[in-house]
Write a structure and sequence with these properties.
single chain, about 300 residues, 14-stranded antiparallel barrel, globular, disordered N terminus
Length: about 300
């Protein structure tokens, strides 16, 4: 057990205090159902009030493993070109706990030809982080960068995004947290790094029963490797969703989702690493719940593919 603590401590020290590693946003196998977290322009795009929650248990069986929970709620306003939303995140990695609360605002431009929209979004809120340095096992006694715990340090931030979508295609670009700040003055290299996201996808009708939905997400961060997620989903009768995901050089996974009715969708996912760490854990598990609230007599446009 002590060896595991030493390994985890070494990894955390690198994450906290090395310029070659950037503080990373939580990542999800079902990233395509978590768009509002990274792109505020997505707010209101579903046309109704939507609530979505995802919980992720990463590297099951590994002490100090990452655990992430996100919750989002968003809706168009009565003037439907405007959308608003709220995203909340709880992310834990060993002694590091990070909480995020952000409000989202979007404005959409409609095209005369076809059901197409181009949306611009703003995100504003704060990150709150705590680091229990006393839980770390260090090789240097009284290391000034590690003996001081960080408790509920708050950093305000804001972000921007663009999102183009039709009923069968979407394309988005965003940077959800623009300001790069350090936490607690413990280290000048312990910085919230700016992340740039790009996402693209669409739906291809194969026949009356089957559809394909390919999607991909790219994340670029200074001091961290390029992250590329790609997935392909098969959709049967707009009820059963089965798919696979690959994260470049890091992991592969599978997921399944079920439309309980036109408003309620549940999903589960699991992924497995491709690096040496895969020998010391039992993979990753995710659970997703999403619900569209219908307050209009005209009903919900069904199905919704993204």
């Amino acid at each position: 057990m002590k060896n595991w603590k030493l390994i985890i401590s070494a990894v955390l020290c690198l994450v906290i205090d090395q310029t070659s590693f950037a503080q990373q946003e939580p990542q999800f196998t079902q990233y395509f159902d978590n768009t509002l977290f990274v792109n505020p322009a997505y707010a209101g795009s579903r046309g109704v009030l939507n609530m979505t929650a995802i919980h992720r248990e990463q590297w099951i069986g590994f002490e100090g493993r990452p655990r992430s929970t996100t919750f989002s709620i968003h809706s168009p306003l009565k003037y439907e070109s405007v959308g608003v939303g709220l995203t909340m995140v709880n992310d834990q990695l060993g002694p590091i706990t990070q909480r995020m609360v952000y409000g989202d605002f979007s404005y959409s431009l409609r095209f005369k030809e076809g059901d197409r929209k181009l949306s611009f979004g703003l995100k504003g809120g704060f990150n709150m982080i705590s680091v229990g340095s006393s839980q770390l096992v260090t090789t240097i006694d009284n290391d000034p960068k590690l003996i001081q715990s960080i408790r509920n340090t708050i950093n305000p931030n804001f972000g921007f995004g663009m999102y183009y979508h039709t009923p069968r295609f979407f394309l988005g670009m965003s940077t959800p947290r623009i300001i790069e700040q350090s936490y607690g003055g413990v280290s000048s290299t312990n910085i919230e790094r700016r992340h740039y996201f790009g996402i693209i996808g669409g739906v291809i009708k194969m026949n009356s029963d089957w559809k394909l939905r390919p999607t991909s997400q790219i994340k670029v961060t200074q001091g961290a490797p390029l992250s590329v997620d790609a997935s392909i989903t098969t959709i049967f009768k707009d009820k059963f969703w089965f798919g696979g995901m690959y994260r470049l050089g890091a992991a592969y996974g599978i997921f399944t989702q079920f439309m309980v009715n036109d408003q309620f969708k549940i999903g589960i996912a699991s992924d497995f690493g491709t690096q040496a760490l895969k020998n010391y854990n039992s993979g990753t598990f995710e659970m997703m719940l999403s619900y569209d609230f219908n307050f209009k007599k005209k009903g919900i446009r069904s199905p919704r593919y993204f």
